[in-house]
Amino acid sequence: MIESLQRLFQDMMAVGEPPEKGEPTLALATAVLLCEVARADYHLDDRELARLREVLGQRFVLDLSALDALLAQAREEVDTAVDHHRFVSSVREHCDYNERFELVRLMWSLALVDGHKDPLEEHRIRRLAELLHVSHGDFIRAKLAEEGASPG
Questions:
Q1: Domain containing 77: what range?
Q2: Where in this chain does the record put each Co-chaperone DjlA N-terminal domain (predicted)?
Q3: 98-140, pLDDT tens digit by residue?
């Protein structure tokens, strides 16, 4: 628990700083993976963007300027990265299983916020869940939980 709090504090302090040695901060890695899901259907809905801002702001306790900087950096990474291995690796390295499961659940909440379950978004979440070593059963559990919570 103390390690999680220390990690959260370190990530909050490092949000605006460039990552050292190519390793992204947990905040950036999380933002990139969530952006990947939001953009999987080639359309970034205003509701998805608002949900993305809400999730990142709460998860990393960011003020508006830090949140804007994080989102700008994450969107640039999504546009320019050849692959997302370093972001997935960072999350796997710094998060325990429950935190990774929670990230998959947040991916579903982001994908479903527009009231539409797009097959491209589902495919992207499935692939990211596999790369994050979240079991298929928990992938389904997160999906069902968010489908039950989503309006519509």
A1: 2-149
A2: 28-143
A3: 999 999 999 999 999 988 889 999 999 999 999 999 999 999 9
CATH number at residue 101: 1.10.3680.10
Question: What are 137's two structure tokens?
Answer: 């059963």
CA distance 12 to 148: 32
CA distance 35 to 49: 9
Residues 24/87, Cβ–Cβ less than 8 Å: yes
Q: Are 114 and 47 in contact (CB under 8 A)?
A: yes
Q: For residue 55, count other CB atoms closer than 10 A to its CB.
A: 19
Are the C-beta atoms of residues 141 and 133 closer than 8 Å to each other?
Answer: no
Please give the structure tokens belonging to residue 110. Answer: 């982001």
Count: domains in the chain: 1
